[in-house]
Design goal:
Strand order of the largest sheet: 3-2-1-4-5-6
Strand content: 15-25%
Bound molecules: nicotinamide-adenine-dinucleotide, (2S)-2-hydroxybutanedioic acid
Largest sheet: 6 strands, parallel
Radius of gyration: 22 Å
Structural class: alpha/beta
Number of strands: 11
Order of helices and strands: HHEHEHEHEHEHEHEEHHHEEEH
Number of helices: 12
Shape: globular
Length: 348
């Protein structure tokens, strides 16, 4: 108990004295070994990265959150670290700090790279983003080869094959642990289908398979839960809107980038599902772009069961109607080229 008000004032003054703010982190009493997962976000100062960092800081499964970027990560880290949630936040800036950012991680989420501007396709981002993804994945192979990777950087249809080849070259490739994030397609599909059906999107479940660009995004409207049917006009409208959802946002942002907020939301939900899988929760199923034997292509997005090993089971597509079968053929044609392009980037 304070013996006098002057002592109390002195104590407060001492606390406010700048040297006391210099108390170094390592001198602080550690949190009692909080259980949880260690998560790194690479590209954490970007449009997706910042919101995703906020959402991951709020996730009770996360005990340590590493925020890495080539610019501005100290500011984002200082800001996020003041949130009174469990995760300890640490920032890392630039290539020399990549190894420290990655060492000891359980999950690495990668939204690093440039976004589209109006008139561009996702494939137009290849020339810049392929190199960024290669460098970051080389770091993953070296510092945390057993980590689960959630790859967001576009073009996902090519960056996932790039990551796979980098890991193969390093001798660390585990197909179960590399997941291309297509969760935003599912989020959009649930929203748009909910609008047409007059349902809360939270109650809607639309499988979206194939890949993450244009016609490779194939919503399976015949498999929507709760069971329902659509007119041919509704099917055409919904399929196009889901396939063009990214372009809708790019055009609305008019040069200021692509989806960031809805993407951060979808990525945070997907990362949470991966962490629940790693924790051993049963029945965690999400769509993702993964190594696959569902079609003749080496990678394909479909429902996967997430577990301690990562994508433990890749589900078959189930029965498709005629409209979806035609869509599947178109999707596979474009996907094959994008996958090959990514593979060649490392192999050749
Ligand atoms: N998978 C999806 O569904 C989906 C959805 C939306 C956006 N995206 C893609 O995500 C990527 C990021 O989008 P954004 O809107 O956040 O872009 P942004 O430009 O706002 O942020 C990207 C961040 O990456 C950082 N970065 C660049 N090179 C890096 C490197 N070598 N290492 C670490 N960080 C690096 C930048 O400094 C920047 O902070 C884009 O490629 C975009 O197309 C994918
Ligand atoms: O459309 C884009 O370029 C970004 C992202 O892939 C999206 O689907 O919103």
């Amino acid at each position: 108990m304070e013996s006098s008000s002057s002592q109390r004032v002195a104590r407060i003054a001492a606390h406010l004295n700048p040297p006391n703010f210099e108390l170094r982190r390592e001198e602080c009493r550690a949190k009692g070994g909080a259980p949880g997962f260690k998560v790194a976000i690479l590209g954490a100062a970007g449009g997706i990265g910042q919101s995703l960092a906020l959402l991951m800081k709020m996730n009770p499964l996360v005990s340590v959150l590493h925020l890495y970027d080539v610019v501005n990560s100290p500011g984002v880290t200082a800001d996020i670290s003041h949130m009174d949630t469990t995760a300890v936040v640490r920032g890392f800036l630039g290539q020399p700090q990549l190894e420290a950012a990655l060492t000891g991680m359980d999950l690495v989420v990668i939204p690093a790279g440039v976004p589209r501007k109006p008139g561009m396709t996702r494939d137009d981002l290849f020339n810049i983003n392929a190199g960024i993804v290669r460098t970051l994945c080389e770091g993953v192979a070296k510092c945390c080869p057993n980590v689960v990777v959630n790859l967001i950087s576009n073009p996902v249809n090519s960056t996932v094959p790039i990551a796979a080849e980098v890991f193969k070259k390093a001798g660390t490739y585990n197909p179960k642990r590399l997941l291309g994030v297509t969760a935003l397609d599912v989020t959009r599909a649930n929203t748009f289908v909910g609008e047409v059906l007059g349902l809360d999107p939270k109650t809607v479940d639309v499988p979206v398979v194939g890949g993450h660009a244009g016609v490779t995004i194939l919503p399976l409207l015949s498999q929507v839960k709760p069971p329902c049917s659509f007119t041919p006009e509704e099917t055409e409208y919904l399929t196009k809107r889901i396939q063009d959802g990214g372009t809708e946002v790019v055009q609305a942002k008019a040069g200021a980038g692509s989806a960031t907020l809805s993407m951060a939301y979808a990525a945070a939900k997907f990362a949470d599902a991966c962490l629940r899988g790693l924790k051993g929760d049963a029945g965690v199923v999400e769509c993702a772009f993964v190594a696959s034997e569902v079609t003749e292509l080496p990678f394909f997005a479909s429902k996967v069961r997430l577990g301690r090993a990562g994508a433990e089971e890749v589900y078959q597509l189930g029965p498709l109607n005629e409209y979806e079968r035609i869509g599947l053929e178109k999707a596979k044609k474009e996907l094959a080229e994008s996958i090959q392009k990514g593979t060649n980037f490392i192999k050749k």
